[in-house]
Amino acid sequence: MNQHSAGGSARRERLSMADAGVRKRAEEYTDRFLVLLDPQATDEGMAALRSRAGIARAQRVGGAEAKEAPEALQRGDAVVFDKLGVGVVTAAPDQRQALRTTARDEPAILAAERERVVYASQVTTLPAGATVDYLKGYQEGVEELVNHALRRFEESTVGAARAAAVEEAQATWGLQATRVTESAFSGKGVKVAVLDTGVDVTHPDLADHIGKAISFVPGESVKDVQGHGTHCIGTACGPREPHTLPRYGVAHEAEICAYKVLDDSGSGTDSQILGGIEAAIGHDCRVISMSLGAPTFVGQRFSQVFENVALRALEAGTVIVAAAGNESERPDSIQPVAHPANCPSILAVGALDQNQAVAFFSDAGLNPDGGQVDIAAPGVDVLSAAPQPLMHQRMSGTSMATPHVAGILALIAEAHPQATSAAELKTLLLTKARRLPLASVDVGVGLTQAP
């Protein structure tokens, strides 16, 4: 029996959005700091922190060795990611002023900032059979959360009626809209890293193309309990001929590198993301897809650490793509692009619905100093893989838009083997996008298109 059609009509009555049940806060931090080091003087920078601020001696990790970082940080050790030139240090309250002073005065330290907590950028499934009355009676003490869910419920009912007109017998509406179904390319020979909640490594649609599967979450295997990571991986690199139609994957012959940086509840930290980026560069991934983030506010500057990490990744030949975020409640409330997608050198992806309108939850480029949306992709009612036994499910969010772009970058890399630099891949992606009659603050250059 078709694994997703039995409940398909019920699911299409509600948007399945990965972060609706997660109470996210802008500026949620850990007790660690990220330290951007001069790549020519990393030892000098860490030595200055050790001598002047009492920071623990650092363990250096590079490439695939980055998987050792979480345990080291749990022990209270400092870590330096070699390829990124970034240190992660634990600082007690009485050490923080000395750390900031050292970072300001030491030439080998370019920036220092607190480590953020980040979340999956998707929107959660409402319970099967949920009604407005059910939601009104659910958890009386959390009115804000209930009202938030009710607004999304009403929006999704409208979206479901529109979605019914889209024929998906052979391929999802997202693959059709991005012209993936017309492309002669498959992503063969290209490695795509997906930094998320892990993956179902035995999923029959995905198992044959998983090259790496590593967890950067202390105490958790790469197994995807949450479902978000498997869904994103399925969109980016699912098969051309899945066990059950329709086709939902973009770069069906790309090699999947699944790095678990978010825990089973869908949250993680900056250092776990950095570990995944370090490993992806070490494994020669051309594309890194990150459907995750932390809320920002209007006027907030982007992370200097992540901006420089993105620049160093580009120099290594790797493009980073990230979800713009789902904090908006259009038309009443539009929020700025989330961290780390708000970094100028990271491609921020907004979400569109089946009518190629901006999804009501999709964040916008409101901050003039960075924080723009670069491109848009399908992000509403997107069908993709799910951990067994569910096999497939529909989700909505900028999380779902992001792997469409990541997969298309893999197709472009295959189609243009002469484009050896990451900057060339970005340019090809942006110039091939289809222009839309929508504001660039919402969709950037337009709807991503396959070569």
UniProtKB/TrEMBL annotation:
<dbReference type="InterPro" id="IPR000209">
    <property type="entry name" value="Peptidase_S8/S53_dom"/>
</dbReference>
<feature type="active site" description="Charge relay system">
    <location>
        <position position="399"/>
    </location>
</feature>
<dbReference type="InterPro" id="IPR015500">
    <property type="entry name" value="Peptidase_S8_subtilisin-rel"/>
</dbReference>
<dbReference type="InterPro" id="IPR036852">
    <property type="entry name" value="Peptidase_S8/S53_dom_sf"/>
</dbReference>
<feature type="active site" description="Charge relay system">
    <location>
        <position position="196"/>
    </location>
</feature>
<feature type="active site" description="Charge relay system">
    <location>
        <position position="228"/>
    </location>
</feature>
<protein>
    <submittedName>
        <fullName>Subtilisin family serine protease</fullName>
    </submittedName>
</protein>
<comment type="similarity">
    <text>Belongs to the peptidase S8 family.</text>
</comment>
<keyword id="KW-0645">Protease</keyword>
<dbReference type="GO" id="GO:0006508">
    <property type="term" value="P:proteolysis"/>
</dbReference>
<dbReference type="InterPro" id="IPR023828">
    <property type="entry name" value="Peptidase_S8_Ser-AS"/>
</dbReference>
<keyword id="KW-0720">Serine protease</keyword>
<dbReference type="InterPro" id="IPR050131">
    <property type="entry name" value="Peptidase_S8_subtilisin-like"/>
</dbReference>
<dbReference type="Pfam" id="PF00082">
    <property type="entry name" value="Peptidase_S8"/>
</dbReference>
<keyword id="KW-0378">Hydrolase</keyword>
<dbReference type="InterPro" id="IPR023827">
    <property type="entry name" value="Peptidase_S8_Asp-AS"/>
</dbReference>
<dbReference type="GO" id="GO:0004252">
    <property type="term" value="F:serine-type endopeptidase activity"/>
</dbReference>
<feature type="domain" description="Peptidase S8/S53">
    <location>
        <begin position="187"/>
        <end position="439"/>
    </location>
</feature>
